[in-house]
Amino acid sequence: MRMTNRFCWTLLASALLAQVAAADAPPDGKLPADATPLAYALALKIDPRADRFSGQVRIRVKLTKALDHLWLHASELDIGKVEVTDALGKVHQAALTPRAAAGVAEVSFDGALPAQVIELTIDYSAAFNAKLQGLYKVKIGDDAYAVTQLEPISARYAFPSFDEPRFKTPFDVTLTVPKDQVAVANTQPVQEKDSDDGKWKTLVFATTKPLPTYLIAVAVGPWDVVDGPTIAANSVRKVPVPLRGIGPRGTGPQFKWILDQTPATVKYYEDYTQQPYPFGKLDLLGAPDFSAGAMENAGLIVYRDAYLRIDANSSASSHRASFDVNAHEIAHQWFGDLVTAPWWDDIWLNEAFATWAQEKATVALQPDFGGELARLESTLSAMGSDSLLSARRIRQPIRISGDIQTAFDSITYLKGASVLRMFEQWLGDDRYRAAMREYLAKHAYGSGSSDDLIASFAKSSGKGETLKLAMRSFLDQPGLPLVHTQLSCTNNKASLRLSQSRYLPYGSIDNAHLQWKLPVCVRFERAGKSARQCFVLDQPRRDFAVEGGCADWYLPNADAAGYYRFAMADPDFSALRTQLAALTPVERVSYADAISSAFIQGKLSPEALLDAVPTFAGSDIPQVATALLPQFAWIREYLASDATRPALDAFASALFGSRTLALGMRRLPTDTDMSTQLRVRLVEFLAFTAHDRAVRQSLNELGRSALGLDAGGSVDLMRVDPDLRGEALKVAVQDSGEPAFKAVLGELAVNHQTRQRYELLAALGATHDPLLGEQARNYALTPAVPVGEFRFLYQSQVAEPENRAAFWQWLQANFDSLAARLPDQVQSSLIRLAAAGACSKSQSEQLRLWFTPRLNNLIGGERILSQSLEAIDQCTALREHFGEQSLTLWARAHASR
């Protein structure tokens, strides 16, 4: 077809305009590669008692081509003077203009500059952030504290920057603060100078190692600063490292326990990695309000202060959590800080490795904590999330800024760590450790990708392409493998048939037919002797020769280290059932999970599941004794009726009631950590699932005593064992009603012990009284409840079936107010709160209709809504599959006992 000249020119002009528009459009993803930061000088003037702070940032930037503008990040900053100094020292005026809601900003020059190294200087000021991101402040009484939280993409709220992990540069930080305030940063101060009027002081800090923006940290306030034991030099590190604890005024003495644990943790990682601690000094800072559990800023780790404030009055669970979180964050100093993921699609390299390393450190350094069992329960938790068709892959593509926020979930942390543990078992400790050491040494103070890590594993293991394909099959596709096993034996020659499919709950259908290159390590038992053999299942089904011939029985997941579920041929499973005493504790939990997973698939009846509970109930290992109780709770809530529920409760009380009362309601000097965990788990189950009267009465009495409700006493929360204090307060609010509720409110007004505040807020949320429940929900919207705390109230609220309908109605009316207080990246968590406990088609439809129009304003909301609705649909399908009448005969049989 022939075109007229006018039409041709019109098309050409349109194409040129489109190219210009595309060139000028702000990037939503990675910044262009034509401008790269080389170093930062950041000067901040901070008074936490004020409403605003000011700053100047100077950035040395390499231009790789001629540019008249560049892109960086700045959000909610009031920009003052912007200048560019070129390579010849000439100063050019420039302007910074916000161009996208995600914080992308354009710096335009007064003319095109050729490729060179320039210095960009930006003066700015901002209000302290109100959502615990960027540079924010917290008030406790008359004290105010300023703290940073910059991960993943919140540095842009604190200073203009190239806010991406691939840009690792040195930082020079200078802080000007009131004379009476304490100021800390990633490095040690090297210079301090008072202002002429004596009201301010300026601290210049040593230049950092190359760091991405999200690992920069500063904090200003009337902090307590306590010295911990110096981390002594050793064969890996030739100089000692100073260690300090930093917390809100008056909290310093509570830091002693965790500071005493820290040197051994650092040494453990140095011995393992053969890399010295990278950052010269180590400060552990407890923030009075914080959006995350903790943040691994290089040399200045910031925590929720509850994780650091540990003393003789703290619960056993607080000690465990403190050690685990600290070990996780210290592990990051190597995994994430020393070597950083180049882009957010590899964030699992930070979080999965820190989780994996923390679990190893806990097992090695705190053997009484039951770290191997905790590690397995984390794996099982990840398997629950991974059983959704909408589950994402470990290495999820990150295309826009909203994808970054959703990458920090159980798949990244827990599945990633579980997959690493599986490959560690398959390769063997020595080969695996050698690969880790090579990877860290090769990429120290730089970036390392998944491909880099896989290359190190392939080289060290000698498994080459097999290893690469196996790892990628777990990193680059979602889902949980289910391995079916059948052992055959003829003339003392044994063959094990393995087949694989994707594990999915009842009612879910997968059309993708996913397959893995799956390491399957099996424990075979012959005449009381164990042997372990690993196979690589790289096809839908394969037969493998078994070394050593026939076996009396076998376990398809040796040491429970594989990231897969298993289903055995009936004769094989029956043989295993008779040998539970020969299994290790983690293997018994894995066996119990095989029962649970068959139930969730609708292949095992509720009656059979219930009849299996006593098999585990008598164990002294808390994770074993309670392994099937989550399924018991599901049956009680979704299948039982008013006619059958009493039989379930009586069954639970008969199994656990006398044992729980014998354990008592207070930790004894002779108690191990395992017995303490068992006490807490059984009390929680009997009080809130089975509603055992004797246990609830004991807890109510304790809660009333703590709240001073009897004999005109005053509130003293230490009257209750800290391990059970939260449970006692909840039951007191539920069973003693308004007097207990008011006493809790009164205590919250004066109590600044963070852990106790969490327990008090959870107690308010647990009330079953409709009027008090409304009061509790509204209370959490007031300034009396800091942003980082009110989730404890709302999570407790929806944990009670009696409260969910009222909460859903309230949330719809107050959604905007609640979302406005939350950090941007967690607003979509309100979807999970709304979906809690839902298990019907009508509830699924209500949530879908209400949230769908709001998804554009919720970061990651589309994925979270999809996953929440799928979980509701799975629950609904299983409920309909079994039917309410499925328990009738079982209840009658047990009622007659």
How far apart, in Å, are the first and last alpha carbons?
A: 90 Å
Beta-strand content estimate: 15-25%
Write down the Rg: 29 Å
Report the average pLDDT across residues.
95
Task: Explain what this protein looks like in three dimensions.
The chain is α+β, with helices and mostly antiparallel strands. The protein has seven domains: 34-214, Immunoglobulin-like; 223-334, Neutral Protease Domain 2 (Neutral Protease, domain 2, Orthogonal Bundle), CATH 1.10.390; 343-349 and 367-475, Neutral Protease Domain 2 (Neutral Protease, domain 2, Orthogonal Bundle); 481-592, Sandwich (Immunoglobulin-like); 615-691; 693-788 and 795-801, no CATH class; 822-897, no CATH class. Helix content is 41%, strand content 21%. The chain is built from 28 helices and 28 strands. Strands 3-6-5-4-7-2-1-10-13-12 form a ten-stranded mixed sheet, with no helix packed on it. Strand 8 and strand 9 form a beta hairpin. Helix 16 crosses helix 28. The termini are far apart. The model is unreliable at 1-22 (pLDDT under 50).
Short description:
The chain has seven domains: 34-214, Immunoglobulin-like (Sandwich), CATH 2.60.40; 223-334, Orthogonal Bundle (Neutral Protease, domain 2); 343-349 and 367-475, Neutral Protease Domain 2 (Neutral Protease, domain 2, Orthogonal Bundle); 481-592, Immunoglobulin-like (Sandwich), CATH 2.60.40; 615-691; 693-788 and 795-801, no CATH class; 822-897, no CATH class.
Please supply descriptive tags for the structure shown above.
Neutral Protease, domain 2; ten-stranded mixed sheet; 897 residues; Immunoglobulin-like; disordered N terminus
